[in-house]
Amino acid sequence: MYNSKITGLGYYVPDNVVTNDDLSKIMDTNDAWIQERTGIKERRHVVKGEDTTTSMGVKAAKIAIERAGIDKDDIDFIVFATLSPDYYFPGPGVLVQRDLGIKTVGALDVRNQCSGFVYAISVADQYIKTGMYKNILVIGSELHSHGLDMTTRGRGVSVIFGDGAGAAVLSRAENEHEGILSTHLHSEGQHAEELSLIAPGMGKRWVSDIIADNDPNDESYFPYMNGQFVFKNAVVRFSEVIMEGLKKNNLKPTDIDLLVPHQANLRISQFIQSKFGLKDDQVFNNIMSYGNTTAASIPIALTEAWESGKVKTGDLVVLAAFGSGFTWGSVIIRW
Is 292 considered catalytic here? Predict the structure, then answer.
């Protein structure tokens, strides 16, 4: 058995900044209302025609590969997490392989929404632990802005989400006491529709029927979220899965040097911080600037934390996420 460690990190966000005041001009909302409920001040939206989920992932990946000190042809496998692929199929994993000019390695797409990057890291970690691969590129990328209901009707969801991408290179570790110590994954499908995007899908409606209906009031094409229900479940599952990871490694909350939670809502992060008795410098949040970028949120935040010197050799770093599915998970890392 081998161990895996993160050897390179990178992120990319579009230049186009959308503030709460900008949103107030197209829907009935305001800066105070958004900040009070989410903690978000601004987010990034792509300019149509300039970026895609794949292209943002490629830009983040190039930075991560360079920082890992390897060549793109040293990548053995690609894992791409997203809920907003360029195409219904194929997924963006193969598009990244093509656009980076990587040899014909395997490419896997992960559809676990807000928990996507945690799931993707877990998959990559297992491939390296078993000796199958040596260097794996893991990407989380999301383009939400093209699919949001940017009207007053959709404000409860649309003000939350932003676009962006983050990437990590996982490599085989020589020291078994460093790198990813364990990962922990869970799901609870009975609540699947509480945070969901029902259409387009093949479950209940044929494509020909959707085209024929062409109903402008059909809200199934926009994300739905039962906000209070999701919040209540999130704070419970976040706490459980973080503790599960700590106990697995005979650790305590006081051993955490940095917690990087999925950037779903600043209030959730603050609740978890308080519950675990962590100081402000022990939890990294950037939702204020980027909103919720779903599968991209943890790699973007982890990269920013590393760039700012908040992640140091020997630190215990905990990643945790909760989202649609419901799915949730954690990653325990000795940096």
Answer: yes
